[in-house]
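2024-03-11 09:14:02 INFO receiving multi-entity request
2024-03-11 09:14:02 INFO entity count = two
2024-03-11 09:14:03 INFO echoing inputs for audit
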Amino acid sequence: MKVKNLLTYCLISSLFLFLLISIWKILVTLQGIVLTNFNFNNLYIFGIVLSLLNLLIGKKFNLNVKVIILSFTFTIFDFFISVNLPIWYSFGIFLVSVFFFNTIKNYDKIFLSKNHSSQQLFFKFLTFFGITLFSFVILFPFYMMLITSFKTQALLLINPLDFSINFTKGIPELFKSYLIVFKDYNFGKYMLTSTIVSLGTVIITLVFAIPAAYAVARLNFFGKNFISTSILIIYLFPAIVLVIPLYTIFSQLGLRNSIEGLLIVYTATTLPVAIYMLQGYFKSIPKELEEAGIIDGQNWLGIILKIILPLSLPAISSVALYVFMIAWNEFLFSLMFLDRPNSFTLSRAIQFLNIGAETPRQYLMAGSVVVTLPILIIFVYFEKYLVSGLTAGSVKG
Amino acid sequence: MTTKLAKIEKRTAYLLIFPSILLVFSIILFPIFSNIWISFKNVELKDIRIPEPRAKKLVKSVTDNPTKIKIIYKLRNSSLTQEIKNVKFKDKFPKGLEAINLDERCQFEKNILKCEFGNWPEKYREQLEIVFQNIKGKEIPKKKLKSFKPNLSGKSQNILLTYEFTLNNFKKVVKDKEFIDLLLTTFYYTFFGTIGAIIFGVLAAQLVNQKFFGRTYMRSVLLFPYVAPVVALAYTWELLLDPTSGTLNNLLINYQIIDGPINLLGQKYVTLNIFGFDFKLRLALTTVIIFEIWRYFPLAFLFILARLQAVPKELYEAADVDGADPLQKFLNITLPQILAVISILFMIRFIWNFNKFEDIFLLTGGASGTRTLPINVYQKGFSLGDIGMGSAVSLVIVVFLLVFMFIYFKLLGKRANES
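2024-03-11 09:21:47 INFO inference complete, emitting structure
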């Protein structure tokens, strides 16, 4: 066992434990509990002792049992040096230490005698630190969105650092902002509009894109190469350069403030990527299947409906989900084309809420949750399809 | 036989692809070209509406005489700036009516009232009153009268279709005192937003490429900012960064890291003292860039992770045999493998960040030094109502875009030849 490796092990691992415990303690203070003494010195030294103990025990008995015993020891120690704290605090400490000892359970004397083990350790802990940091930075705004929507104006002003959700006040009181947003601000209607627009865009895009993609993938015609290369170039043109001409044309045609106008624009802007994604997939379907269809006397409609469609359902679902996401989240066109509240989509309605400076923040956040939640649920549920859509459509965003 | 089949194939192909081409042409390509047209015209927001002759019909009963009825048409030109030529009017009536005091511009034949009003200047208003009576002396049903709507037509000049052109819009764009600053801000935002997103993407991909508990969940979570709607995220950030009730400022003050609140989105400059030198940092712009990085690093992450997972394991095993440490492995194996993806990502993200509108618009509205070219399109075209100038600005964007695309496809072609 090298001294350098042992030293790095002790320092880094206890530093990591120290960091985790500090995060927990800071979170606890934000909940209104007063910690008179953080006891960081004692905890740090005890952390080193336990890490060493972990090393000495090594793999002598079941690793999970070792983890539980060590974390329990740590929790008891913390419980005795910090008095008068609620039981959920100690439970949090226990979970944190289980997480910590779980990460170091595989280390023993043999590992530390290897060549690069100190650097490996360093990167391992850097990884965990990175994961904690990344998840915090990502999730914290979402969490704040959620808890703000559960608060009242007074609570928000009294203590902006209260990160808790008060479940004791009962469900109707808790969801009051949502009730108001749906009742007084008409969010039910906006949600319906958004759903209709998004689903409509998906359907129309698919109806247009599937035949076009089939033609580009399979049939020979003059100008085919030109079309397939120009698809991507067209896709790279952003909405902001289209907005003024479209605004003027739509004003003159009376298409502003109408769902039809939005549907046309959304379909046109998502069509290139839909065609691009689908034709790639259609090319991978064996040609023999279609030839069999032709021998059976199918025309192109029959081939697309009976052979291509059933075989390319995964690709079609990822296109559909991706287009749905784009249409649901779209903001610029809905800002430009809709200025009457009865034709608003959700995104536009929330922006409209924010213009009135007097609108309480909790209503704004309740609206934000209403627009975010469906898309996140769809994303988590259909992640596999959406990720492939995202990668293919990623030139835009 | 084969030529006939080829012909059928060709026709089918055009049939299948025509609807898509038509739609994309009319909604994407045609507007891009009409941008050029509009940018050479002196058009304002209020000129866009085509002037229309309008009429409001009021039905009033004449006192003590149910067989007579008075109809009032409130006529007007909807435009405040333009004349309407050759206005014609038409309205239907129920059978058996007779007009008593008919205006000399009008005729009443076969239950139809026809008028020719000639030219209406801008802001024109008139009240036309006509009294009708039933020939047989019966009572006139009011409801039926109201159910007919007058029909008006007239010729007016559509300002967008005239042949008057001007270079004024471009002069205004280039002579704008802030034009250079605008370009610098745009490039600053684009460049740092792109680089930052890629750096964090590489870091996140490195993390998730290792084995740990909950790795698949981690991947989903990392994609959240990219998937969620901008509106919700921008307003949440605004809430977090608010100088008085915002979480971040309160946290920093609570732990005594700063003395007073900082308006991260509303302050143009902040002076930093590093090694005795004063640096002026564009504060609001930096905040907006950080939001940009936060929202778009997931995309870089997704790409790089996919590439990392395709790196052959043998390379790392060979490095282990040679006794390489983790840092050496990253620099000598991982980095060369992901370099191609990074350069493509850089180009794509650069183009898209250059055109980004929503994020800045929702966070600051372009105030406190965060005005980029796309924001300027909106401000000139819609806030100031100068459609022509807004069009000229968006043409500037298109020119830059074409240059970027040229470079992009040139590099992409080169890369394709190499591999």
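2024-03-11 09:21:48 INFO post-check: Strands of chain B lie at 53-61, 68-77, 84-92, 97-99, 106-109, 112-120, 125-134, 151-156, 269-274, 277-282.
2024-03-11 09:21:48 INFO post-check: Chain B is about 55% helix and 15% strand.
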